[in-house]
Known about the structure:
Elements: E1 2-3, E2 27-28, E3 53-58, H1 73-82, E4 85-90, H2 96-108, E5 114-116, H3 130-144, E6 149-151, H4 154-157, H5 172-183, E7 188-190, H6 209-214, H7 229-242, E8 248-250, H8 251-254, H9 260-269, E9 273-276, H10 281-285, H11 288-297, E10 302-303, H12 313-324, H13 353-366
Parallel strand pairs: 3-4, 4-5, 6-7, 7-8, 8-9, 9-10
Antiparallel strand pairs: 1-2
Helix pairs in contact: 2-3, 3-5, 9-11
The structure holds zinc ion.
Zinc ion (ZN) is lined by residues 57, 59, 278, 307.
Amino acid sequence: MLGRRAPPGDSDGMSLPDPVDRPSRSELSLREYRPRPMVRLPRHEVPRPVVPVIDAHNHLGRWLSEDWMTPDLPGLLAVMDAHGVERLVNLDGRWGEELSANLARYDRAHPGRFTTFCHVDWARLVEPDGTASLLAQLEDSHRRGARGVKIWKDLGLTVRDGSGQLVRPDDPRVVAVVRRAGELELPVLIHVADPVAFFEPLDEHNERLEELASMPEWWFGDRDRHPTFDALMAALDVLVAAADATTFIGAHVGCHAEDLSAVSAMLHRRPNFHVDLGGRLAEIGRQPRAFARLVTEHPTRVLFGTDAFPLEAEALTVAYRFLETDDEHFDYAPGDEVPPQGRWAIAGAQLPAVQLEAVYRGNALRLGL
Ligand SMILES: [Zn+2]
């Protein structure tokens, strides 16, 4: 709740007039608060990127949904064409026949427009020969045509082995899988942990409180059930070091978009590590100068990605506006009345053209995406 206060400078403490349609005389629910910014600033629409882009982080499968995530495939291709998207990386391939169905629907039906990654089925780790089974599955996925491996946050948060222990990202069985991926020249796009605030106490200081109130299953702050954020990041670092011949892409700005100096340190430490920008426009948009420094320090290691599914024009054009302009104080999710990841606005990073080319396309091409 926001207490009603007198406006700054109003020394006699005169109270605000109550709006006639408010139920309460003295308090306004945060949920109902809809401030309208009064700043007036230049506004640049960027419907198309300066070069064609590869979206390195997207979801087109059906394991998270009943039907295909994007039932209207011609519609998706029309959005891609209208907004300069050359290719999407589909991280939803799974394994076996489901992988083949993904490859048939996307990669093979529309050559050059889609790159499908597989998963591995960590549930096999409950079996005594789980590692051998996972390696065989990975090789089968490679034969079927998978172009990379996606590892999701369930590894480290919920996946358990036959003894009931949580499987950490730096577990030797995981190391064996990602090393084999490297031998097969499959890049590994890995998402470990989640936003830092999802591991913090669920109280009035939590900057994602509104979001967590509506998605309580995204909160991992119970120390009896989940590792700490720092423990998961440390495990990711060990994993990337242990498989140094494997190419890694750390999802969501290296899984630590709130601390770009930590991400930069990891990129310096681990030359086989890269990052995608999927789902973190709110984060990088509230620190555009820190983000620009990250790209300047590591121009070959940052990959464009949206994590927007089904992909709509707005997710692309807002991302282009962030990367290409120096516009200030704009919405990162213009369709939402309340910004979904926190009540703030973003400002553009205005990357130079050579960096834009690398982030949009060149770095993904170099990794074979
Ligand atoms: Zn994703």
